Amino acid sequence: MFMEVFNSISSPINLIMMNIGVAAGIIIGALPGLSVVVAITLLLPLTFGMDSITGMYLLLGAYCGGTYGGSITAILINTPGTPAAGATIFDGYKLAQQGRAGDALKAALIASTIGGILSCFSLMFIAPPLAKMALKFGPPEYFALCVFGLSIVAGISGESVFKGLIMACIGLFISTVGVDATEGIPRFTFGIIELFGGLSPAVVMLGMFALSEMLNKSGRSQRPLENIAKFTKSKLKLKDILVYWKTLLRSSAIGIFIGAVPGTGGAIAAFLSYNEARRASKTPELFGTGILEGVVAPEAGNNAVTGATLIPLLTLGIPGDTGVAIMLGALTMQGIIPGPNLFTAGNFWVYAIMGGLLVVNIFMLLQGSVFIRAFANVTKVPFSVLVPSVMILCTMGAFAVSNSVLDIFIMLMFGFMGYILKKFEFPFPPLTIALVLGSLTENNLRRSLIMSDGKASIFFTRPIALVFIVISIISVLFPLLKMALKALKQQKLTKEG
Amino acid sequence: MPIELKKTRVNIILALLFILISLFLFYFAIPWGIPIRASWGGDIGVDSRTFPKFTAISMGLVSFLFLVVSLIKYRHLKSMTQAQIEGGKPSQPSEKMSSKEEGRALITFLLFVLYAVLLSTIGFIPSTLIVPPLILYFLGERKVWNYVGVYIFGGILFVIFQLLLKVQLP
User: Fold this and answer.
1) Which pLDDT does position A81 carry in this prediction?
2) Which of A55, A202, A290, B3 could form a disulfide with A95 if both were Cys (CB 3.0 to 4.6 A apart)?
3) How far apart are CA B10 and CA A203, in angstroms?
4) Would A383 be classed as within a structural domain?
């Protein structure tokens, strides 16, 4: 099997796709306001005509590259390209102001690569035993697991948990469009044959994430561009960064742990890594003044999430974050259902993905080292050029899903809906996760109820299912409880003041 | 009016709107959009409408809770002074778009729609030659090279989709 995996990874087309994915990811991640999710969404249509492994390499490249690319904007223009790069600003931008932008970018690149590679190894060692355990799952356990996957929306909803839950309900509802898999009854198809297969997650996401963002950008296109720090060549050597090996290891461990827990993500890992590095430092007062360790810590942390988020995806079929949820959408469109069965039925496929992720990180290091100046220039691309370019790509991408013009109009509809919902601060990640998990949840619910003659007690009498249900309830209630406590505290403070 | 108070008032309207949407889905959209086959679902009480109904009920419940929490918050904020609401911190400059900016976004959206309509009627190449420059001009772009750049990007995408991925573009 080793040779089979090696041959797959080293095939020219796969190597090319990894590189295209990394480059596109870095470029899109470096564009202010465009996140790694947009990078994956925009590349998604290109995977339709590809072999599933090749397509995954492209998306994994975009995922890793986009996570690193966000740091370029953070360092050069004091705006995180992606939320995961939020903590890189503290010291990265300060370094750039001191004329050491190149050093900061190089430190970010090497730390990101090390974090990403360590994360790959965690995936290789943790995923197989977890999948072995998950093989014992039946429909009730799967349903409970899906509920758990859906419950994470409470944690990724940002400020308003209620708005996140409403978005999740919208996502679940959209997932019911099309012919019902159990009875073959068309739902909300209005006699339109193109809708019998349901609404493609790719089309919905192209509209919600990419197009709505372009509408936002077009509105603000006349605003002046941020102050861009001058790019300077780096004089750093690898050993200058490996001096911080303890920080690199600690941050990577934090990133791996955070990434393996569904519903967390790169931003939390980056901030936590930064805080831990400062706490452990002998000179914590220097953090925030422009030191390399302040760049190394968050960047190793946020990229260490990339491999670890694949652990729940590959072993349980549960996406850990929005980027991985889009990948899950791409995989299901290819007919691949992630979960423990993959480890038995498609053993080769899983290991090819794991090995590919490792190579993707190495390509990220190479591309970042050679083309860093070019990538830095991306931050200067005006919005007026970006908007029509993304429009063409989205339109072609939506059409390519099923060679249907209707998909273009559906994408436009979701783009406009996304633009409006964003104005009212509704978060999109819950909708994405609910959309990709919707049919899986419904099918397992119905199978479970058929097994139990319609008795819902089946979910509470089987231990594993019960554990997941309990965790799900806690995951939803915890943010609500936190919100209530915060409100009470504020009320108390107001009364005192 | 403080931003926080305004936001809470908007949230109350949004919660009411989503309650109405969930009622509409439950009582009208689901019975209308999903036919029922009598032979199915009778024994266990689960049919094609069950899951959509469950999501509509969930949306309604969450929206109702959202409404209650927003109403409590609104009442509480109303009883506070502006300084208390801001907690001693000065108001942040709003990231909100001006009406002019919103108008620009809406016109851009209409240009997107025009592109989709032209694409389905006159095909990819003519529509790509017409609409992207209109968007560039509308967004204030006057540098010729940026127009050329967008055309080149469109051309590259055409090659990728039509020739490499074998997608038959309209």
Assistant:
1) 66
2) A290
3) 29
4) yes
Task: Say how many domains are in chain A.
Answer: 1
Mean pLDDT of chain A: 86
B108/A214 CB distance under 8 A: yes
The per-residue pLDDT for B39 is 54
Is residue A319 situated within a structural domain?
yes
How many alpha carbons lie under 13 Å from residue B32 in its C-beta half-sphere? 7
Q: Does residue B145 register a pLDDT over 60?
A: yes
pTM above 0.90?
no
Distances (CA, A) of B59 to A146, A278, A475: 18, 43, 18
The per-residue pLDDT for range A177-199, each reduced to its tens digit, is: 998 877 888 999 988 888 998 89
Which domain, by its residues, includes A66? Answer: 2-139+200-429
pLDDT in tens, B36-73: 765 555 556 678 898 999 999 999 999 999 999 999 88
| In-domain check, residue A277 | yes
Alpha helix ranges (H) inside B25-98:
30-33, 50-78, 82-86
Phi and psi at B116, nearest 5°, equal: -65, -40
Q: Where are the domains of chain B?
A: 3-86, 99-164
Measured between beta carbons, which residues in chain A are less than 8 angstroms from residue B84? 494, 497
With beta carbons under 8 A apart, name residues in chain A contacting B102.
Answer: 219
A to B CB pairs, distance under 8 Å: 197
Using CA atoms, how far apart are residues A176 and A198, in angstroms rounded to an integer? 7
In terms of CA atoms, which chain A residue is nearest residue B28?
Answer: A188
Amino acid at B25: L
| Number of CB atoms found within 10 A of residue A286's CB | 14
Q: Hunting for tokens 């005509």 — which residue is that?
A: A49
**Residue A264 located in a structural domain:** yes
Token representation of residue A361: 């990180």
Contact: A190, B33; criterion CB under 8 Å: yes
Query: Looking at the predicted complex, does its ipTM rise above 0.95?
Result: no
Residue A181 backbone phi and psi in degrees, to 5: -65, -25
Rounded CA separation A272/A241 (Å): 20
